[in-house]
Specification:
This protein has one domain: GHMP Kinase, N-terminal domain (Ribosomal Protein S5, domain 2, 2-Layer Sandwich), CATH 3.30.230. It is built from six helices and nine strands. It has helices at residues 77-80, 84-98, 103-106, 124-145, 176-179, 210-235, and strands at residues 14-18, 26-32, 35-44, 58-65, 110-119, 158-166, 169-172, 184-191, 196-203. This is Ribonuclease PH.
Length: 236
């Protein structure tokens, strides 16, 4: 039924390779099927001006797609300016990751997560959040190792997955052929303990029932559980 031949509750293959760049305090290359995202974490011992002398840390994010991440070349946003989509996605990544951070324990410093999409096949924002947490965790581990942070400020893993209704059925982890034709499409951001951070969901040419929403939430929980297991394996 699915173009990929996967079962309705089956994820794409997941791999997370860590420490893939030389200079970043934390980095990983996350692959969710044919969606590949490079995530790096940079520690800055300063915070934005609006947080100065607050005693609180800050986590923010930037997101971008390489010109040939998709089947046709896109113009670099450095040349034309950021699109509304890019701004919306990087804000989503930042606030999602902050939801799993004890900002007092982090101390008055900023960690910037950069998510660069090398290859896109659906679910790039979800892969960015999931890989972004891994890069963040690796950077925090370095802070703890040198004693700049005493207790782990990452209170709970954060991961994200897409779910939707494709060909009348609830499916987990949409790739591009499904995402482009799904009647209902949603992104679910959750913690490792099953708490919801954000749901972005809309009907496109279709509607959905409360029962179907519950079914999609169940699928999302299954997907996030698998992603969190991969995150923990990558950072252990």
């Amino acid at each position: 039924m699915r173009p990929s031949g996967r079962n309705v509750d089956q994820m794409r293959s997941i791999s997370i390779e860590t420490n893939v760049t030389k200079h970043a305090e934390g980095s990983c290359l996350i692959k969710c099927g044919d969606t590949h995202v490079l995530c790096t974490a940079t520690i800055d011992e300063r915070v934005p001006p609006f947080m100065k002398n607050s005693g609180l840390g800050w986590v923010t994010a930037e997101y971008g797609m390489l010109p040939r991440a998709t089947n046709t070349r896109m113009q670099r946003e450095a040349k034309k300016g950021q699109s509304g989509r890019t701004q919306e996605i990087q804000r989503l990544i930042g606030r999602s990751l902050r939801a799993g951070v004890d900002r007092v324990a982090l101390g008055e410093r900023q960690i910037t997560i950069d998510c660069d999409v090398i290859q896109a096949d659906g679910g790039t924002r979800c892969a960015s959040i999931t890989g972004g947490w891994v890069a963040l965790k690796l950077a925090v581990n370095k802070l703890m190792k040198i004693g700049d942070v005493i207790s782990d400020p990452l209170t709970d893993p954060v991961a994200a997955i897409s779910c939707g209704i494709y060909a009348g059925q609830e499916v987990l982890d949409l790739d591009y052929p499904e995402d482009s034709e799904a009647g209902v499409d949603g992104n679910f951001v959750m913690t490792g303990s099953g708490k919801l951070i954000e749901i972005q969901m809309s009907a496109e040419g279709s509607v959905f029932s409360r029962q179907q929403l519950n079914g999609l939430l169940d699928l999302a929980q299954k997907g996030v559980d698998e992603l969190v297991a991969a995150q923990k394996a990558a950072t252990s």
